[in-house]
Amino acid sequence: MGPHPAVAAIRLAVRRVLHDVLTDTTQNAAGAPLVLVACSGGADSMALASALAFEAPKLRIRAGGITVDHGLQDGSAFRAAEVVARLTALGLDPVGSVAVTVGREGGPEAAARDARYTALDAEADRHGAVAILLGHTRDDQAETVLLGLARGSGIRSLSGMAAVSGPTGRYRRPFLDLDRQTARKACLVQSLPVWDDPHNADPAYTRSRLRHEGLPALEKALGKGVVEALARTAQLSRDDADALDTWAAEADVTVRDEDGLLECAKLFALPPAVRRRVLRRAAITAGSPAGSLFARHVEEVDRLITGWRGQGAINLPGRVEARRQGGRLVIRQG
Questions:
Q1: Which of 46, 134, 140, 308 fits a 20 to 30 Å CA distance from 165?
Q2: C-alpha angle 119/125/126, rounded to 5°?
Q3: 105 and 57, same domain (yes or no)
Q4: 3-state secondary structure of 209
Q5: At residue 276, what are phi and psi to the nearest 5 degrees?
Q6: Pairing of strands 262-263, 131-133
Q7: What does the alpha-carbon distance between residue 89 and residue 99 come to, in Å, rounded to a whole number?
Q8: 274 is in which domain, residue-wise?
Q9: pLDDT on residue 86
Q10: Residues 18 and 83 in one domain
Q11: For the segment 42-69, what is each residue's pLDDT rounded down to a tens digit?
Q12: Is 233 contained in some domain?
């Protein structure tokens, strides 16, 4: 008799990703590649850790685990130690906990995410890991799409989370086609202890309100299938955004003069979606942080091209300014 369908589903998802990792990784004489799982102790990441522990040895991949202690709740260090013990019991090695200090920039959720990814990158570098698996599910993807829609950030924001992201494709998300209940059921039938983060039910957090109020309201109004539809929207949006980004990268070369300055007349001739991508790329290259550069900033710069009335410089995040001078658009740190 085979494993429970939920367990079989998560193992298959992880097996596929591990095959992709092996294909993308050049193995050397140092031995088997190392793949880490980022585990909070919740159902999604515990299901992922168990599947990694089961599948990795069959492919001659070393499997380890990392938990990040954000220090935002009483007893967080104790819970991190519990997660380390659970990962060790699954047979993962190396296993460790990393404590981080969460700042305030961008709000509590964004600050915690930034601190977490910084810590995970450092651990991957320290251990020489070729990939880090993340337990984001289809439900997480749907929430991300709705948050992007609410911000009005454009098609890239609607594309949600990529299955492969980060430096050299380090981050892999095997569960984007699986729902949250599948992961929880897999933990239940395997008797895996899980920890439900109270922040996930705290209405003070936007994602929590969306999860417990927004999405259920949408499903009540529109019927079942909203989560699946939003996940499809993410993939379609990602395909479109990737194509437009490629177009913008090619156009960037053609709209500059011999000194490398952007020519306003050539920018004006581009389709708006491509032109704004060129402007965003230029602002980031000049030093504007990508995470702080919003659609409204790019639209203001775009008006220097499409609605020129002699206006002055546009101030952008990172002390970058955009100014129109003699038919050229100059974007630099002021």
A1: 46
A2: 85
A3: yes
A4: helix
A5: -65, -30
A6: unpaired
A7: 21
A8: 255-333
A9: 96
A10: yes
A11: 999 999 999 999 999 999 999 999 999 8
A12: no
Q: Give the pLDDT score at 28.
A: 47
150 and 284 both lie in a single domain: no
Annotated binding site: 40-45
Residues 84 and 187 in one domain: yes
- Do 307 and 199 fall into the same domain? no
Residues of the chain with pLDDT under 50: 28-29
Instruction: Please report, in range form, the residues annotated as the binding site for ATP.
Output: 40-45
* Start-to-end Cα distance in the chain: 68
Q: 135-176: per-residue pLDDT in tens?
A: 999 999 999 999 888 877 678 888 999 999 988 899 999 999
Q: Which amino acid is at 219?
A: E
Alpha-carbon span 31 to 166, nearest angstrom: 24
| pTM, full prediction | 0.84
Are residues 152 and 196 part of one domain?
yes
Last residue of a domain, one of 179, 206, 222: 222
191 and 280, same domain (yes or no): no
Q: Which two tokens stand for residue 217?
A: 């309201």
Q: Cα–Cα distance between 156 and 131 in angstroms, integer? A: 24
